[in-house]
Write a structure and sequence with these properties.
The protein is an all-alpha fold. The protein is built from six helices and no strands. 66% of the residues lie in helices and 0% in strands. Helix 3 (51-62) packs parallel to helix 6 (103-121), helix 4 (67-86) crosses helix 5 and helix 4 packs across helix 6 (103-121). The protein is elongated, with a radius of gyration of 18 Å.
């Protein structure tokens, strides 16, 4: 128990390893960002001509209960963009796990989602 306590104290003093030291695993990406998986599976079924149009339709279809899905989706998109900006290793690993969650798609989610929440729920 003493050795375990010592290891916990040492780990508590050190900064947690970054994504360049411990790469993002697929299970971690799926567990932390479940709403960002397969973003375009519903977007391009010949009903919409762009991701923006499809995502706007998704928001409209969920309104007025859109906050249940939209707020966590915006939060996950913001977190991924921040992590991508802070770590090239995270960015590469995240894109390797899901190519649909591009920077452009994440920005659409944030921009359209925030605009909807601001205009309809503020």
């Amino acid at each position: 128990m003493t050795d375990l306590a010592m290891l916990l104290r040492v780990a508590d003093r050190d900064h947690p390893p970054g994504y360049d030291e411990v790469s993002l695993a697929k299970w971690e990406a799926e567990a932390r960002f479940p709403l960002l998986r397969s973003l375009d599976t519903w977007a391009y079924d010949d009903e919409y001509d762009s991701f923006e149009a499809a995502f706007q339709a998704r928001i409209d279809a969920e309104h007025p209960f859109c906050d249940e899905e939209l707020v966590p989706l915006i939060a996950q998109a913001l977190e991924v963009l921040a992590l991508c900006a802070g770590s090239e290793h995270f960015s590469k690993a995240f894109q390797a796990h899901d190519e649909t969650a591009t920077t452009a798609a994440l920005n659409v989610i944030i921009d359209l989602g925030h605009a909807h929440m601001r205009s309809h729920h503020a």
